[in-house]
């Protein structure tokens, strides 16, 4: 449980820094998009009850995917702008907010892969349950 809280906290800090950098740069619309993605992570801290662990994982997973999509947008915008050299235009210059978003996206990839591996591990108690020993007719 601590590792999930730590992952949520790191993603929240990275997204907060990204949000602040976009506000400082004057990109208010994209900063609102980042703020809405942050709200998914913030709501992960507010989960209580018997399913708290799975809800936190779900919030972290969805928030990471959203940041991964935004980072992918910035990455592909920069990558495809290299073609502009051939037509005589400038290459897209990455702002500090873009660089921070790419760093957040890199952490998001790590977290999505880690959470998928953790979610796909078989539970040993399910293998020992009585339902696994039943046949189709009994």
SSE map:
Elements: H1 2-25, H2 28-45, H3 52-80, H4 84-87, H5 96-120, H6 124-127
**How is the biggest beta sheet arranged?**
none
> How far apart, in Å, are the first and last alpha carbons?
39 Å
**Overall number of structural domains:** 1
Number of strands: 0
Strand portion, in percent?
under 5%
- How many H/I helical runs? 6
Which structural category fits the helices and strands?
mainly alpha
Low-confidence stretches: none
Mean pLDDT: 83
What does the radius of gyration come to? Answer: 20 Å
Give the overall shape, derived from the CA principal axes.
Answer: elongated
Secondary-structure element series = HHHHHH
Keywords: Membrane, Transmembrane, Transmembrane helix
Transmembrane segments: 7-24, 30-48, 60-87, 99-115
Account of the 3D structure:
Keywords: Membrane, Transmembrane, Transmembrane helix. The chain crosses the membrane at residues 7-24, 30-48, 60-87, 99-115. This protein has 138 residues and is mostly helical. The protein has one domain (2-122). Helix content is 75%, strand content 0%. It has helices at 2-25, 28-45, 52-80, 84-87, 96-120, 124-127. Helix 1 (2-25) packs parallel to helix 3 (52-80), helix 1 runs antiparallel to helix 5 and helix 3 (52-80) packs across helix 5 (96-120). The chain is elongated, with a radius of gyration of 20 Å. The model has no long low-confidence stretch (mean pLDDT 83).
